[in-house]
Every structure is written in structure tokens, then in C-alpha cells.
Amino acid sequence: MSEEQRIRRTGVDSSIRTAAVWQVVAASARRQQEQLGRPLRVLDLGGGSGGFAVPLAEAGHDVVVVDPSPDALASLARRAREAGVSERVHGRQGDSNTLADVLDEPVDLICCHGVLEYVDDPAATISSLHDVLAPDGVVSLLVAQRLAAVLSRALAGQFEAARTALVSADGRWGESDPLPRRFDVEQIHARLVASGLRPVSTQGVRVFTDLVPSAYLDTEADRAGLLALEQAVAERTAAAFLGRLGAGLHVLAVRDD
């Protein structure tokens, strides 16, 4: 595989796992920048090695990545350096409890992707996001979705696990489930509203990606076809019911209190 092919395959805007979310985040950032007349101050909570932070910095924004892992932050620094955006990417070791200590001023955009599944108190984490967000600021929230686990367990013939995922309070399918919790649309919306954040965009992502056998993705054409299908589902209101089956739930919310 050539270097150009590798980049196309793994870039945030071309990876099957991230493209639909990135499309929404990038469009929202462009709108905010036009409204504010300046680059954004961005917080990426749990942003790890910079999969979203570095592309946002490449777009001209100033990004603070708060992550508890020093190894992830070291990878972030290397990635930012290789992309030539070290001056706009700032890694800080911490978590949602330390945001007030590591941020000098309110932020315009927050990415919180794959975090709420693991924190001790999701409601407290969302409240922390609200508190560091500027008026009219935007939160991009990505969480694991319950019905995807129900479907995947059922298709694997694990019917009791599927039923457990459906009826359990935390969306887990059993003791060996690697995720501490999953969410439903209604749960996430309620938690956001309770913290003073108004949902403005909701989409299910990775509806098919986690279910398609890898043997069906041998070529770039196969991957491009699946990516186009995922994006079509994410973009069409008429297909919103399919989004309920997506492995991820992506919500944009604004602070307008």
C-alpha cells in the first residue's frame, strides 16, 4: 500500500469509523468561525493521540487536549509535530474534574468522544463541559449506543446477552462486556438538557461498519462503498431509524443559557 493510499484509508475524513462524525464537527467549526470572525478555542476531552485535535489545528484552531494517559499525550505531541501544528495543539494530563485548572478561558467547541462510557459520573462530566463552554459554544458528544449491542449479540447467536443489553440499566450485555455503559438517544438528550445544553443535531454512526465481515472490505472500492453508505444514512432524516442501530450516537449541543 502506498503512503497516499494509507493516508486516504486512515484520515479522519476518510476512515469509516470517523468520517461521518468529522463531517459534522468540521462543518460546525466552520460556522462558528464565520460567526466569531476568528479561529476557535477547542477542548478535546479524552482526545488521546489527536485524531480530531490535529485536523482541527490544521484548520487553524487552537486545541487543548485533556487526557489522563501520558502515553497518549506523547503520541499527540509527535502527531502534532509531524503535521506542523505543535504551536496550536496543547496536551494536558487530566480529566473532566480538572478542566477548570487546565483551561485559561472558556472554549468555543468541545469534543467529548468515547468518554462518557467510562467516567464515574456521566452527569457530572457533562456539567463540567457546560461550565467551561462559552455562551453559544458547541459540544460534540459521541457515545456508544445500546441497540447496536443488542443487534450484534443477536446476530452472533448470543440471545440471552442481547436481551440483557436491551433491558439492563447500563446497556451492558454481561459481566464480560468491555464497556461500562451504553446510552439511548433519550438518555443523552435528557442529560444534556439537565446541564443547560440544548441538542441541535443527532445522528447514529457506524450502522453497518461493525457488522460487516472484514472479508468484504478487501479493496479500497469496498471501503469507499461502505463509507458512502454510512454517510448517506447519517445525512438523511428519512433514515434516522437506522441510526438507532449505529454503534455510536453523535450529538451536537449548544450552550444558550
TrEMBL record:
One example GO MF annotation: methyltransferase activity
Keywords for the protein's UniProt record, in alphabetical order: Methyltransferase, S-adenosyl-L-methionine, Transferase
InterPro entries registered for this protein in UniProt: SAM-dependent_MTases_sf
Superkingdom: Bacteria
Single GO biological process annotation from the record: methylation
One Pfam family cited in the UniProt record for this chain: Methyltransf_23
PANTHER family for this protein: METHYLTRANSFERASE (PTHR43464), UBIQUINONE BIOSYNTHESIS O-METHYLTRANSFERASE, MITOCHONDRIAL (PTHR43464:SF19)
Protein name per the record: Putative methyltransferase
